[in-house]
Design goal:
The chain is α+β, with helices and mostly antiparallel strands. Helices cover about 40% and strands about 25% of the residues. Helix 4 runs antiparallel to helix 5.
């Protein structure tokens, strides 16, 4: 059973896989009615405008896509319904997908797990018999630890599905949202941009018409929702990576701080083994300790992280974080004072 991509069968001989990936992405954006133009596509995919122009030419000439430029929307659209042929994957690519599905299947017992399990079954059918036998061994030898999904599984699956549809069709969504930090419930109109999973919870990055800025919303705190017929246009400079670039995980604050932390020698050996943030800089100290510097937006997430190190980590900067750590340390000392 050959799973190698048959380029000559679909008229794309000589086209690289990188180009094919871009072409299929461009097709999805056009088919979704986003009216992408060369400049916007080039910026989102981080390639030159000339590269995108070649990809569009291939999409038009080799695939027969009915692409036209819409002067009113200043972007490309299809004159009629059009779809691309499915790509066939190599054995190695299917194996990688299988392992990815295994990772996601740790959502077992939830609607997410049921969806993933169905996809996993289909992937097994697509694999050659020999490779399927090997995968049976992988089932026993490999497992993934995923944090328990936060929130009601059935409700999460429903809001997740509707938000996916809203993102793909560029439709605004009315939500009734519970803000945990203020213990309040408000109604909002949002334009959903991107879904992100982090530490057992799903979040949507969306433009909030109530606050007039891009915000982060936890799906399990959305109490009611309705996808509207109101279309929105995504901010041209938005990317999830740029939006979260100063987050230690998922938190964004009103400003960016230079966070400087000194770790004791016994903790320093562990800290320098991994990258905690793209902006980090490490300075080894003569006594075996370590100074970690990062540029972070918001201080609550890093404070929770640092509390796990106890007295083996000291905040040097900013003063606001140092003061918060000191207050928490005094509170802890009072709680456990009768144990001393």
């Amino acid at each position: 059973m050959s799973l190698v991509l048959k380029r000559n069968k679909i008229g794309i001989d000589g086209v690289s896989r990188q180009s094919l990936t871009r072409i299929y992405t461009i097709h999805r954006w056009i088919a979704a009615g986003r009216y992408p133009n060369v400049a916007a596509i080039a910026e989102r995919l981080e390639v030159s405008s000339r590269t995108i122009e070649r990809d569009i030419q291939i999409l038009r000439d080799s695939f027969g896509a009915p692409i036209v430029y819409d002067n009113w929307h200043r972007g490309y659209r299809y004159e009629k319904t059009f779809s691309l042929p499915p790509l066939r994957l190599t054995e190695g690519e299917l194996l990688t997908l299988y392992l990815g599905q295994r990772l996601l299947s740790q959502f077992g017992g939830t609607p997410f797990g049921q969806i993933v399990q169905g996809a996993l079954t289909k992937l097994k059918v697509m694999l050659p018999e020999k490779l399927t036998v090997d995968l049976a061994l992988l089932d026993e030898d490999i497992s993934f630890a995923i944090e328990t999904l936060r929130g009601d599984a059935e409700k999460l699956a429903a809001v997740y599905s509707d938000l996916c549809q809203a993102i793909q069709t560029n439709c605004s969504v009315h939500i009734v949202y519970y803000t945990a930090s203020r213990d309040t419930v408000t109604g909002r109109l949002i334009d959903p941009y991107h879904l992100r999973f982090y530490k057992g919870a799903w979040y949507v990055i969306a433009y909030c018409h109530f606050r007039r800025e891009i915000r982060l919303f936890a799906l399990d705190r959305i109490q009611q929702w309705q996808v509207t017929g109101q279309k929105f246009k995504m901010a041209p400079d938005f990317s999830p990576e740029a939006y979260l670039q100063h987050s230690l995980g998922i938190e964004r604050g009103p400003r960016v701080y230079e966070v400087i932390i000194r770790f004791q020698p016994e903790q320093a050996r562990w800290i320098k083994e991994r990258q905690w943030h793209p902006s980090q800089a490490l300075e080894e100290l003569p006594d075996g300790g370590l100074v970690l510097k990062m540029h972070l937006s918001g201080l609550h997430e890093v404070k929770r992280w640092l509390l796990g190190f106890g007295g083996r980590a000291e905040v040097m900067s900013p003063p606001e974080l140092r003061q918060e750590m000191a207050r928490d340390a005094r509170t802890l000392a009072e709680i456990y004072s009768d144990e001393v």
